[in-house]
């Protein structure tokens, strides 16, 4: 990890404007400011830092997002007595770069997106969280904290929520009539949540409007034509035909402007003409597409984004699964280490282990 | 998010089963084919007075009724964009049952956010600027949903577009005495929107319902809202729901709407013939049964 200063320099509007102008110039030259390719993401890591299964940290380059989940048995709402409850809250650590007048609109948009993706999209079937209709249902509360924002925080937040829902375990229940027995983890193994499918969103930045991109391509074609005509060998013409249909085309002979870039940083988000969020599940199907503001785009750009997200989603899903397996191994090692003292001594009386999580037996 | 359908005395589950039976036979409740749009009728009133710049009443033939009023006041520009004007959108639905207030409020907030972001994408807000960094026009759009029958985002957007297009900002005077010349607002592209429902037909396939009503929105498995520009470019695209769609189906649905977008745009921008009658009498502005042309 690169060295981070303790106090970040306050980015002035002039510096932000210079970054935006540099980003646009780099896009016209077919490059990105941090030398990534158009479809390349920053380094993504998923980590479960605690031994319990309810905290996750997702890093995407310099953006860090933490998510925590809590489960509780509560009484359902009267309107929907057979459905569990799902709550999402998003917080953002305040930095010096944030203006005091900044409202929580980005957090509200992210909460609305999570509600639409997880609840309406059917990631968690809320009917499966019902224990006793009208009396007891499970309530899931997911708390997302954006620790550092260097662009693409919304995607990292949703990846954190999906990883958390896949990895979390709730206590097992025994229902006898109207009495519910909640078994602590040392009595019975906790039960995973029923996750129907795993949509993973990816944000794409549209660098410029399609009409402006075509103008830039025509300009470059004219430049290359005049260059070849004024060259020492006028008979050898430039035979490369520029394919305008491909938004991700990177030609080695003459650099073309980038059309669509994935995983935009903060400067790229400010410089972009528009942005698209595509959520793809493990089978490569589109769960959610959101293109809200900015210029109008072509349908082939949208299809290019869907195809690019289809190739990126399995990688992030593999990262999540590898992190889950590594965390399970770490839990097993820690559990063995807890009882290593018992193998060295004999004749010691049995001591009742206090449960880490205080879960009441409700009758 | 959709507003719940008004089923009257019928239970919602029975009503949904009734709609399911129609959709299984590739029929709809109101007799439309699967790819037909409801024709909007928009009445305009642009008399002005008391800061009111434009007023439109949006109806179609199945009961959607929206009232949109646009007011203009002076105000300071936003601090991060000092050369732009401001646009605020408020949506109210006073006639809905109170047992689902939070659901209705969330849906209305989403509609307001959708309309505002789409209008900002199609209109240059620097036209509302008066003095850079000090004074600008603040357009206040107020939408009152008198009756909702599905496709709320599309209907709200059409009502606002009909009100703001070619709207005259009058000649005014700033509080410090400066004269502000009159100005006519223009869109650089006219957006048209549709709500497309995705209905999963067992294991054999999927059906797309163009321009869903409230009954169909309560039974479909997914919803698309597509906003197209003059050249059929995608301005806004929102797809959500429990059914995952492949990109080929998405492309087909958008192209199907692109074939009908020109006729819909003409219907939105058509000047209403009954405007002369409305100018004569004030009471007929809120007439829920507008006169049909022809």
Concise structural overview:
In chain A, 33% of the residues lie in helices and 23% in strands. Chain A contains seven helices and 14 strands.
What are the salient characteristics of this protein?
heterodimer, A: 363 residues, alpha+beta, Ribosomal Protein S5, domain 2, four-stranded antiparallel sheet, 7 helices, elongated, B: 294 residues, six-stranded mixed sheet, 14 strands, disordered C terminus
Would you mind describing this structure in some detail?
The complex is a heterodimer of chains A (363) and B (294). Chain A has a domain at 32-205 and 311-337: Ribosomal Protein S5, domain 2 (2-Layer Sandwich), CATH 3.30.230.70. Chain A is built from seven helices and 14 strands. Chain A has helices at 13-28, 105-120, 153-167, 210-229, 266-271, 299-338, 340-344; strands at residues 44-47, 55-60, 63-74, 85-92, 130-132, 136-148, 169-170, 172-176, 179-183, 191-192, 200-206, 260-262, 274-280, 286-291. In chain A, the strands form four sheets. In chain A, strands 1, 2, 3, 4, 5 and 6 form a six-stranded mixed sheet that branches. In chain A, strands 12-11-13-14 form a four-stranded antiparallel sheet, with helices on both faces. In chain A, a hairpin with a 2-residue loop joins strand 2 (55-60) and strand 3 (63-74). Chain A is elongated. The two termini of chain A are 51 Å apart. In chain B, 38% of the residues are buried. The model of chain B is unreliable at 274-294 (pLDDT under 50). Classes of the chains: A alpha+beta (363), B alpha+beta (294). Chain A binds chain B through residues 79, 99, 101, 109, 112, 116-117, 120-122, 197, 199, 210, 276, 281, 283-299, 302-303, 306-307, and chain B through 1, 79-80, 99-100, 106, 110, 113-114, 117-118, 120-121, 189, 228-229, 231, 233-242, 244-247, 250-251, 254-255. Strand 14 (286-291) of chain A pairs antiparallel with strand 14 of chain B.
């Amino acid at each position: 990890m690169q060295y981070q200063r303790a106090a970040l320099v306050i980015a002035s509007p002039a510096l932000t404007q210079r970054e935006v102008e540099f980003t646009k110039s780099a896009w016209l030259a077919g490059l990105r400011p941090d030398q990534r390719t158009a479809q390349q993401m920053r380094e993504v890591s998923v980590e479960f830092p605690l031994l319990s299964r309810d905290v996750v940290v997702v890093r995407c380059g310099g953006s860090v997002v933490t998510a925590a989940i809590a489960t509780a048995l509560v009484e359902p709402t009267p309107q929907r007595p057979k459905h569990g409850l799902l709550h999402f809250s998003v917080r953002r650590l305040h930095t010096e770069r944030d203006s005091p007048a900044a409202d929580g609109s980005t957090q509200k948009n992210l909460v609305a997106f999570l509600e639409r993706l997880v609840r309406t999209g059917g990631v968690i079937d809320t009917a499966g969280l019902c224990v006793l209709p009208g009396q007891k249902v499970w309530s899931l509360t997911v708390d997302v904290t954006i620790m550092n924002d260097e662009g693409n925080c919304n995607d990292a937040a949703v990846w954190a929520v999906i990883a958390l829902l896949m990895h979390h375990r709730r206590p097992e229940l025994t229902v006898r009539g109207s009495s519910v027995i909640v078994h602590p983890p040392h009595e019975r193994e906790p039960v995973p949540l029923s996750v129907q499918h795993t949509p993973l969103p990816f944000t794409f930045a549209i660098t410029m409007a399609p009409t402006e991109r075509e103008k830039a391509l025509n300009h470059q074609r004219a430049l290359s034509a005049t260059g070849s005509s004024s060259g020492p060998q006028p008979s050898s013409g430039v035979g490369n035909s520029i394919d305008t249909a491909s938004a991700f085309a990177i030609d080695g002979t003459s650099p073309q402007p980038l059309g669509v870039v994935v995983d935009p940083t903060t400067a790229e988000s400010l410089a972009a003409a528009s942005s698209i969020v595509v959520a793809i599940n493990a089978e490569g199907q589109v769960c959610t597409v959101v293109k809200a503001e900015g210029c109008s785009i072509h349908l082939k750009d949208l299809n290019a984004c869907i195809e690019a997200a289809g190739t990126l989603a399995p990688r992030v899903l593999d990262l999540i699964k590898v992190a889950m397996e590594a965390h399970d191994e770490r839990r097993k090692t820690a559990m063995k280490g807890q009882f290593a003292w018992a193998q060295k001594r004999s004749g010691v009386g049995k001591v009742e282990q206090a449960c880490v999580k205080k879960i009441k037996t409700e009758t | 998010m959709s507003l719940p359908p008004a089923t009257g005395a019928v239970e919602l589950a029975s009503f949904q089963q009734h709609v399911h039976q129609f959709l299984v036979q590739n029929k709809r409740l109101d007799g439309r084919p699967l790819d037909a749009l409801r024709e909007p009728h928009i009445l305009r009133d642009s008399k002005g007075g008391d800061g009111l710049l434009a007023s439109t009443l949006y109806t179609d033939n199945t009961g959607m009724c929206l009232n949109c009023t646009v007011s203009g006041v002076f105000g300071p520009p936003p601090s991060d964009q000092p050369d732009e004007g401001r646009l605020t959108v408020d949506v109210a639905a006073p006639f809905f049952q109170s047992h689902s207030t939070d659901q209705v409020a969330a849906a209305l907030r989403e509609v307001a956010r959708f309309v505002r972001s789409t209008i900002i994408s199609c209109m240059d807000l620097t036209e509302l600027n008066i003095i850079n960094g000090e004074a600008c026009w603040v357009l206040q759009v107020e939408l009152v949903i008198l009756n909702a029958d599905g496709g709320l985002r599309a209907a709200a957007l059409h009502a606002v577009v009909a009100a703001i297009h070619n709207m005259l900002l009058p000649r005014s005077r700033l509080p410090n005495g400066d004269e502000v010349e009159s100005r006519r607002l223009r869109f650089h592209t006219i957006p048209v929107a549709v709500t497309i429902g995705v209905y999963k037909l067992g294991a054999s396939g999927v059906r797309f319902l163009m321009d869903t009503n409230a009954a169909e929105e309560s039974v479909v498995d997914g919803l698309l809202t597509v906003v197209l520009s003059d050249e059929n470019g995608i301005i806004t695209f929102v797809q959500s729901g429990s059914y995952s769609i492949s990109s080929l189906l998405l492309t087909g649905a958008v192209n199907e709407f692109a074939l009908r977008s020109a006729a819909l745009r003409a219907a939105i921008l058509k000047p209403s013939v009954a405007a002369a009658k409305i100018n004569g009498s004030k009471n007929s502005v809120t007439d829920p049964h507008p006169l049909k042309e022809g």
